[in-house]
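Task: complex structure prediction.
Instruction: return structure tokens for all chains below.
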Amino acid sequence: MAVADAPRHGYGIMQEVATSTEGAVQLGPGTLYGAIKRMLAAGLIEESPRRPAAKDDDERRRCYYRITKVGQRVAEAEAKRLAAILQLAMAKKFISRQELAVEGGFA
Amino acid sequence: MTNPRPVAWSVRLYKQLLRAYPRDFRKQFAIEMELVFENLASEAWQRDHLRGLLCLWVRILADWLRSLPVEHYRDIKGTYAMNRLAATGSGISIVPDPTPMRIAGRAILAVVTSYLLYLTFGAVLHISMLGASLLWRDAADYQKWPPSGVILFLLPSLLTGLVACRVQGMYRPHWTAPIGPVATVLVFSVGSAGTPWYGVLASVALTAAATLLGSVISEKIARASATACPA
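Output:
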């Protein structure tokens, strides 16, 4: 999901994950690139030929990753699956709509 | 801009830690991982100097310890297992009185059996020893004519490699490939009285060479064919 809106390099993905989870998930390079390797193999993400203008050599050596169409569909299916579980949890009163709004930071 | 000395040292140390990852993983991601670490280290240093760097190292070491076995397991599952498979084929196909028909028959049997064993028991089982336990009685005959080992180990290695590539979609030669067959030959030698030491050495050398050659040739054929293995 970290590469859904724009191509990102490894460090960018780490920052995006840390920001979107408010620091709760801090990926290490080993875990991150292990996941990238598997997602590349599964065709969920791909190396992006388009990248922001590189400022220095280090930037040029970085690889940018973007989501594929298959990855997009898998992410949508997974989101729907999680939403269905959440609906069930609310129906069974494990969590209320108000609690969900507070936990998720929704208005 | 040059990094402060502790950051530069940390990057150098992390570069050494990266060497512990499997070769393919390193080849694909080591440069990027080093750059990511450099970013993290610079950020930690700017935020909290030495304390920040130490906190980062705790996180990085935990990540390294966690991801290292995972990547090695995946690497083993992909590459090493296929070589064990080839080794099993080699071990099982040893025959006391090699005739072309028997070699071919045993080789086909070895390939099928190896693949079934691989599917049943998973990736890292040293099933090549099965060949030794099944056929140790043939040892004395095998030792009489060590060159037969070239055919006996080359052919099944080659066939198993090709089958593995077709079915699994990948096969790469690995330096560990001869371990199974060599162990098999050693077990044979111990089990057979009166085998001269140079006979054992010759068998071991031929076995290792033939198995490696079989692995390499099967990879080359697989790459050249339409269903070439992914790198």
